[in-house]
Write a structure and sequence with these properties.
GO molecular function (chains A, B, C, D): carbonate dehydratase activity; zinc ion binding
Strand order of the largest sheet of chain A: 2-1-3-4-5-6
Pfam families (chains A, B, C, D): Pro_CA
Order of helices and strands of chain A: HEHEHEHHHHHHEEE
Largest interface: A-B, 103 and 104 residues
Protein name (chains A, B, C, D): Carbonic anhydrase
EC number (chains A, B, C, D): 4.2.1.1
Shape of chain A: globular
Cofactor (chains A, B, C, D): Zn(2+)
Radius of gyration of chain A: 19 Å
Oligomer: homotetramer
Largest sheet of chain A: 6 strands, mixed
Distance between the termini of chain A: 52 Å
CATH superfamily of the largest domain in chain A: Carbonic anhydrase
Number of helices of chain A: 9
Chain lengths: ~220, ~220, ~220, ~220
Amino acid sequence: MPFPADLINGYRRYAGERLPEERGRLAQLAKLGQAPRAMVIGCCDSRAAPETVFSTRPGELFVVRNVANIVPPYAPDDAHHSTSAAIEFAVRELMVPDIVVLGHSLCGGIAAYLKGRQLEEIRGDFIGPWIDLLSGSQSEAEATDKDLADADMQRAVEEVVVRRSLKNLTTFPFVREKVEAGEVTLHGAHFGIATGELRILDPETGRFEAVAPAEDA
Amino acid sequence: MPFPADLINGYRRYAGERLPEERGRLAQLAKLGQAPRAMVIGCCDSRAAPETVFSTRPGELFVVRNVANIVPPYAPDDAHHSTSAAIEFAVRELMVPDIVVLGHSLCGGIAAYLKGRQLEEIRGDFIGPWIDLLSGSQSEAEATDKDLADADMQRAVEEVVVRRSLKNLTTFPFVREKVEAGEVTLHGAHFGIATGELRILDPETGRFEAVAPAEDA
Amino acid sequence: MPFPADLINGYRRYAGERLPEERGRLAQLAKLGQAPRAMVIGCCDSRAAPETVFSTRPGELFVVRNVANIVPPYAPDDAHHSTSAAIEFAVRELMVPDIVVLGHSLCGGIAAYLKGRQLEEIRGDFIGPWIDLLSGSQSEAEATDKDLADADMQRAVEEVVVRRSLKNLTTFPFVREKVEAGEVTLHGAHFGIATGELRILDPETGRFEAVAPAEDA
Amino acid sequence: MPFPADLINGYRRYAGERLPEERGRLAQLAKLGQAPRAMVIGCCDSRAAPETVFSTRPGELFVVRNVANIVPPYAPDDAHHSTSAAIEFAVRELMVPDIVVLGHSLCGGIAAYLKGRQLEEIRGDFIGPWIDLLSGSQSEAEATDKDLADADMQRAVEEVVVRRSLKNLTTFPFVREKVEAGEVTLHGAHFGIATGELRILDPETGRFEAVAPAEDA
């Protein structure tokens, strides 16, 4: 089966339209190496690409993406930890000054968790164990608000998951040390797919606040 | 510490320039859900964002990114497998018809593997075990060409890793079944950061061939 | 004589207010090295600092500043060429993808040139020969507009000097090659001190146009 | 190729956030002209902007920047001396009372000199001759300390270069006269990129001492 024609055309469009503007920057980044200004831990969802939401250019964001933008708790062992390895690479090798956990609305992984899919054929081989990392986040959401409608619950859990991932990041010794030294800062955000609204986690209030339009800045 | 001002401004640029063009598409994707036309397994590298290379819009690519675009072999257990869970979600829940493993030049993870970083302090807690998934890829590269210069070796191993990830994908029963049923097709590609060149793995020859420019490109 | 107290206090303000936010980025840039996204050739004038005008952070702009933001013509010899060496370092060593010549209003060097200071004691040992690089720019300005008032003449020559510096940049073989290869792009801009207005040289029209406010973008 | 979007947005940030606070000061400086309280001779390095390190506002610092913050010896001739012209302009025209030579860590120009880049293709057309101004500074550093590790040597030479630039300043008659008349004071400083530490040259001891934090800092 040949390579998808639409992707080839998409590359040609990139090569014809965007690459000319970035040829020099890419050559520079190839010679000098990357020094990304931030790491983003996002979801695989096709509607929430970090580079799109933040209008970034090559070299700016080191991005790990998994189902439901989850950061597992620190658990070093012989297993192959994809997300934890990426975090360690970003913090120790690339010394990123900022880490952003980017959640988003309508997250399929979180929806699956909320639907409590316990049937083996649905949990599958890996989705179930992965989603188990979300255990308890529903009650965490209910703790703050008892009477949540379904849509509100989904949104509330999405926010809980961002807070949890940030909390789990601090369980990594090499992250915590740099956070305490002021060399790494942790941030949370939530992207609303239906409207394109970005809301940022306010460390003071612990709430997600919409980004004010430029003129209000 | 406040949310990075440059990322906020990047979002404002997105909201002012690109969002207006995609508002309708996003609203549609929010209501009907995503049905990505392909899954891309790429690297976290800040210089190789799949959405950029393929000029895709929201809803098109379901993207998992880890260090060195690795697909581990099928190994179901109680552990939390980030990449495997994403693959299962893409294939079983989203039924993507195509899966693209996108490698790239100057991969830091592969460079670390080639430098044979065995010292604990460099292997860290997670980078070492993760990179162990690359074990043997150097000799695999040498098998096809004995006299590789360093730069060539890096490139050769990058190609081996793409082939390996594709091979490992077929160790997942739910992937193999659909591949055999013609419902899923696997593809390999390699992005050259210095030049922006995309090379596609030819299943016939097993070699990576540069994408021919469009007639009018 | 002790170090100026106001500068020490300024540093303490930096150390107390801005450094905390930049600590991580600086540590990263120290380990990975700089890869500035642009070179700016500006004037020494105390009222036209490039980092201020473009709100840039550490690592973004490689800046050479001399009297009247002049780029001399390519003239390799045994002499010590400060500006030419900086340009070569930026283009060959740091591979900056963009070079911006930033002129500004009320330029003292250009005013000196226009006042035709021929008396030795005013030309001094170095100002005179340096300003001689501006020779002919007045008639160049008059060529496009015969009846310029003094203020207009100053402004017109400031613009001519930016155009000239851009033209001289292309006399450097290592710049011209990269410009032709699309790896380096040259840009001109003019900062108005009295109003803080930035005007950008439009390569099409050859005229300087004010930057439109965000909402018009 | 259009003007870089990120720089345009950076200017808009300046225009929206900082300009309003400085509009009055800029209008004043435009009418009355600049009277900078000091000249800074710094490096082009993107990580060591004088205005940032000293938290200065428009009108305060007259800044010349070249590779490795070098002041060449006084050598009046017909050549175009960028740095010397800036010094003469600052001292004779603007009568700055203080001149600060600001060195910094990890200086690429000094690293190039220490690597003894003699090959023509690396010396290039201008970098080599410019760096030749550093000749002998390594042995000068070794004279004070025989057993310097590489990192220490880089730091030691950076300090030697600051002392040399200060010494060369006194070879300019118009500088020496004013220094002797107590109308101009020369100062040396060194900025540490990794930590943001500023160290000031103590004229008594000839050593660089860290700036003590403000009591309340």
